[in-house]
Write a structure and sequence with these properties.
Blueprint lengths: L1 H4 L9 E5 L4 H16 L3 E5 L7 H6 L6 H7 L2 H4 L7 H13 L6 E5 L10 E5 L3 E4 L2 H11 L11 E5 L14 H12 L3 E5 L2 H8 L5 E5 L4 H9 L3 E3 L4 H9 L4 E6 L8 E3 L5 E5 L3
Helix pairs in contact: 2-11, 10-11
């Protein structure tokens, strides 16, 4: 929390515009940071330019996850102030990313927090470091996505398995299969797997007697709703999975430890049910 405090000289006339990037979990961290700024007296605007396929995102080779569809379904375009992009902003964000510093009033922050917010500013980044999780955002998401009458047995676990994270070619997560084996052995209950890769998930878990099958609705929000409604949740190493655990009222949550080993990761979780499981051999 101390890390956040030093960045602010509050002036209610100051506007911070956040250019959103990434998938659903990443965008929730960015909106959460916007909530943090609002609480401190800033006016906050959002822009979804980098969430859409366009010439710039093609050149940058950024993956487009279809997050705008999810934001529309959640009515976030009505609840938060979204404004149009400006070519000047886009140009300066790219320069800031290239030179790793603020360019005039624009800063690409990456995985850090803004260097300062003393004036009107345009920022783009992930904002996962020591920013309090907004109860307003949590309650908003729960009210829209938590299944009051879930068909999943309360004594059954839900495992999130994101196929691309666990391939041999992904150096960020070389041993996460070990994490799953440790967590499931410790848990010892029957479970379903929520995944974006049915075939890989079946291959990974089919030999486990407690594996009940794959749940994959092919909808980001439907799968998210299943995860947050679980009583027992085993996360993957993804921000999407982290947010599902944060929003859920599960009695037990297992998560990889370390969660990410290739970047600084210090979100301020309010969920005291999390149990870290090492994926080291």
């Amino acid at each position: 929390m101390e890390k956040c405090k030093r960045y602010f000289i509050v002036d209610k006339n100051k506007i911070v515009k956040i250019y959103l990037i990434g998938g659903f979990g990443n965008v929730l961290f960015q909106i959460n940071y916007g909530e943090f700024l609002l609480k401190r007296g800033f006016k906050v605007e959002y822009c979804d330019f980098f969430l859409k396929k366009n010439v710039i995102t093609n050149v940058l080779k950024w993956t487009i996850h279809g997050t705008t569809k999810d934001l529309k379904t959640l009515s976030f375009y009505n609840e938060y102030k979204f404004t149009n992009y400006k070519l000047t902003d886009i140009f300066l964000i790219i320069l800031s990313k290239l030179f790793s510093k603020s360019i005039f009033w624009v800063e690409y922050c990456g995985h850090s927090l803004p260097s300062t917010l003393k004036e009107n500013k345009i920022i783009c980044g992930y904002f996962m470091l020591e920013v309090p999780i907004s109860p307003v955002l949590i309650n908003n998401l729960r009210s829209k996505l938590l299944e009051k009458d879930s068909e999943i047995d309360k004594d059954t676990g839900i495992v999130h398995y994101r196929g691309g994270d666990y391939s041999n070619s992904n150096n960020h997560f070389p041993n996460l299969d070990i994490y799953y084996k440790k967590a499931l052995r410790k848990l010892g209950v029957k479970y379903h797997v929520v995944t974006n890769d049915k075939q890989l998930a079946k291959k990974a878990f089919c030999n486990d007697k407690n594996f009940l099958g794959v749940i994959s609705s092919e909808s980001v929000l439907d799968d998210f709703s299943i995860m947050i409604s679980a009583n027992i949740l085993i996360q993957s190493s993804s921000t999407y999975s982290w947010w599902a655990a944060e929003i859920s009222k599960a009695n037990l949550v297992y998560q990889p430890e370390p969660f990410f080993d290739h970047l600084e990761w210090k979100p301020l979780s309010n969920n005291n049910k999390r149990v870290g499981i090492s994926y080291e051999t």
